[in-house]
Amino acid sequence: QVQPVESGGGLVQAGGSLRLSCVASGRTFSGHDVDWYRQAPGKERELVARMAREGVNTRYADFVQGRFTISRNDAKNTIYLQMNNLQPEDTGIYYCNRRGSTDWGQGTQVTVSS
Fold this sequence. Notes:
Elements (H helix, E strand, L loop, with lengths): L2 E5 L2 E4 L4 E8 L8 E6 L6 E6 L6 E3 L7 E6 L4 E6 L8 E7 L9 E6 L1
Parallel strand pairs: 2-10
Antiparallel strand pairs: 1-3, 3-8, 4-5, 4-9, 5-6, 7-8, 9-10
């Protein structure tokens, strides 16, 4: 099983930026679509961004509105989420995974203050 390990979260002020990283241990992201999800307090986990296996096609949730960029480096078995212009409503735990996998990691906490 792939055990994603997310990092890069933290506390930032509104308008700030963070770059999240996710390393797959155990297997690999190569050959798989990859996702970033988030879960806000009291809410269900929701898809933030997806990148196709070939590393070109991407999909973003409507709330991203051009602020986030997903990328991947299969040689490093790592996926990234660059987040700009963060807002308080972006607060939550951010998770990465291979598309369709239910083997979740611990996530990384993102807190945006107003």
